[in-house]
Amino acid sequence: MTELVEHGQLFIGGELTDPFGKDVIEVISPHTEEVIGRVPHASREDVDRAVAVARRAFDEGPWPRATLEERVGVVTRIKDGIAARHEEIARVISAENGSPYSWSVLAQALGAMMVWDAAIKVAKDFTHEERRAGVLGPILVRREPVGVVAAVVPWNVPQFVAAAKLAPALLAGCTVVLKPSPESPLDAYVLAEIARDAGLPEGVLSVLPADREVSEYLVAHPGIDKISFTGSVAAGKRVMEVAARHLTRVTLELGGKSAAVVLPDAEVQTAVSGIVPAAWMNNGQACVAQTRILVPRARYDEYADAFAAAASALKVGDPLDPATQVGPLVARRQQQRSLDYIRIGQEEGAKILTGGGRPAGLERGWYVEPTLFGDVHNSMRIAREEIFGPVICLLPYGDEAEAVKMANDSDYGLSGSVWTADVDHGIEIARQVRTGTYSVNTFSLDMLGPFGGYKNSGLGREFGPEGYGAYLEHKMIHLPAGA
Q1: Which pLDDT tens digit goes with each residue over 457-481?
Q2: Which of 191, 199, 284, 323 satisfies CB 3.0 to 4.6 Å to 390 for a cystine?
Q3: Beta strand pairing status for 15-17 and 10-12?
Q4: Which of 96, 183, 253, 386 is the catalytic position?
Q5: What is the value of pTM for the model shown?
Q6: Where is the signal peptide (predicted)?
């Protein structure tokens, strides 16, 4: 993707429509720092129009009243459309946000397709209506679509997160206003085309690229029944505050500072080869990244050398080069944020084991070297605050109890992993760590299970029946005796 991509209209209710305002979002390449795309900046008036269209489609249209089989048919075509265009989607996202192309193919595009596919399976297996024996007589319990959904997605994995919200919402019978980030709106247009070609009815989906101010207007809109938001803790708290005005239902998937616990019996190379891609994935711009690596103090030097060597070997460069493993950060502010935390870590007394600045030979682009800090104490800011860049901490621990305590000593609780020769013992550790997802001797995110966080990492769950159920209301119907 080298030529300028320009969209002059907004996708509202399934149709390309002229925006009310004249403001434009310029998409800047993190690699070249040049403009690669332009799209309209949605205004409040555009939000009003999109919500009104979605409201009418939900209250009067065919989508919520269609059979599950009919909705599955449309959503399956959306999934197939993503599969057919996955290479294009991967290139667009890599150009927008700097994600390495090889990772974009697997996680940004095919990963999104897998989310759609898993949601279809969950919806087919879900019990939408059941009879129960009540205390006073028989009852019928129904699960019905919650209504109009505002889906706010971030720039780091835009298609994957959009799928996590859109797939269950659409299958449940909801209508959706999707708000992509201003850093990554181009792939959302591809998704809009796919949804339109799949036969999604009029009014069911709108796509409104916009900044934080317009996003707040959307989530505060009285026509919205449900908000699904992925982003920072600060923004999530604001969403929850604004949603309270109308008691709008919310799902919040927020930040993380996840710990990979390496037990004394782990094999060094197995742990290193498994943790490194989970720590520096997507240039460190992943909420589930294993950004704190806990290793036995008795073997600290051995692990420090091994992790530093692996990190320093990561290939940094053009995100569209298939050989690149770490690309540029999404924006200059994110680059500066990582560099600021590198300075803070040094001031706190941590030691840079590898990296620590801009890569040599990459003067243009928002690059930061894969950086590993050693001699880190869990009280340091670099160990407590989400950096959202390629800056990782190596922390020594004394015994297993201390390792578990350190893993739990965080304001976050989104992800984590344990590495050990004894899988059953690894499961015991997993049960002790207060985090929403956990892995033993691997790192993965399964779309058929619930994903979300404890503490400041969020509220509610995505994926699996738990995530699907977030787009449904429960209704109890009392029946006469003998019915």
Answers
A1: 999 999 999 999 999 999 999 999 9
A2: 284
A3: antiparallel
A4: 253
A5: 0.96
A6: none
